[in-house]
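Lab notebook, page 48
Experiment: co-folding of the full assembly
Goal: obtain a model of how the components sit together before planning crosslinking
Operator: M.T.
Materials (sequences as entered):
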Amino acid sequence: MTAKTFTVICAATLAAFLAGCGSSVMLDPPTIPTPLINKIPASVGLRIPAEFESFVHSEEVIGRKHWKIDLGRSNAALFTQLFAYMFEKVTVLDADDDASLLSLDALIEPSIDAFEFSVPNQTKTEAFAVWIRYRLKVYNADGTVVANWPVSAYGKSQSGGGTDALRRAAVLAMRDAAALIIMKLDDETGISARISSVAAASVAVQTPQPATTDEE
Amino acid sequence: MNPEATSRLIQASKASIMATLILTMTGCVTSRIEDAREGMTGISEGESIVILAKSYHLGNETEDKYIACLEKRLARGSNGLHVISSKVFVDSLFPWFEPRTAPTDTKGLAKLMDHPGVAEKIAEQGVRYVIWLDGDTERVAGGGSLSCAAGPGGGGCFGFAWWQNDADYDANVWDLKELESAGTVTADVSGTSFLPALIIPIPLIARTQAAACKGLSRQLRAFIIDDPSI
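Observation: model returned without errors.
Model output:
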């Protein structure tokens, strides 16, 4: 056996050993089905922070195995798709875009407050579970924060094994968040109600005042 | 080793292998399958069923492979039902049948049908019954010990291990035409597996979950078609 062959064998053995000490999960951007809902008649802006575009969670579980979960662009892709289904018009803003120059009814800024997961070793079950807590900040046309809504989502999967099950649990958690946002966003943030009141006030301003008579 | 002893050893090995092959088909399984009917059932040509697991948000842990087993068994045979895949159904009705949003009882069905597009999608797929599964298979007892060793001259195992699995499943059948519960079918199966080893381990596996799938699917078919002869 030559020195080079010996080195290659040692390197391969070391790589196999290290692979057993940690796992890395990379998520592809998930897709959600077209929801059966009526769109909210509003034009909203969506500003996605840089850390939301490339969220990575690393954790060592019970001091035994290191897990790294790279959500990548999956959160950004999910929210872009979700809001396109929910609102009549969605404009995705860059960090330096001035929202006040666009005729938006509201600006929404999502972020991740917390990300946790559990593996079968911890729960003594065969399931992987993921919890994600998003936060949606809603600004009105003049930049005032009108809602700050935490969205807690949960996904659980037994299918596949190891990284596949954890990946599926994360995707299910995102889909859970999407379902909750569809059901509750308007109630929690009052976007429709605010648009209706602004429209009503605008009509009241435009309605001409009745003319006064000479007798008065 | 003399030729006679070698011949006896070969024959003993063949007998062990045959015994292993035969005995792996058996196991100690006890089953109880029951149904409780609340309304009339029956299914027409063109109508379908869908099998869903109750939400994990409520703590349910029904296995995906058990649902797949039930779907397969209910769809096959001369009395096979038309089964819509749970994934296809849930996706087509997003977000109304997600683990968080699915109705938890039949009182919510009327309101569900009022949501835009829901009734149309259900009619398009011809779904007549939704079967909600609750329960799982778990190991409830076990014991014994088994040790195996291998060396240059050969290897083998010695010892005895056993374990008991319980498979408890409830299937609640909802009639989407009448917007009410048609009844419940339950399967309660217990199986004990043994693993004696004398050089070669001889597994006597009780296929508890498979027995629960078989029993529940047979009873569900009879319940939905409303033909006790099936």
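Interpretation: Chain B has a mean pLDDT of 90.
Next step: discuss with group before ordering constructs.
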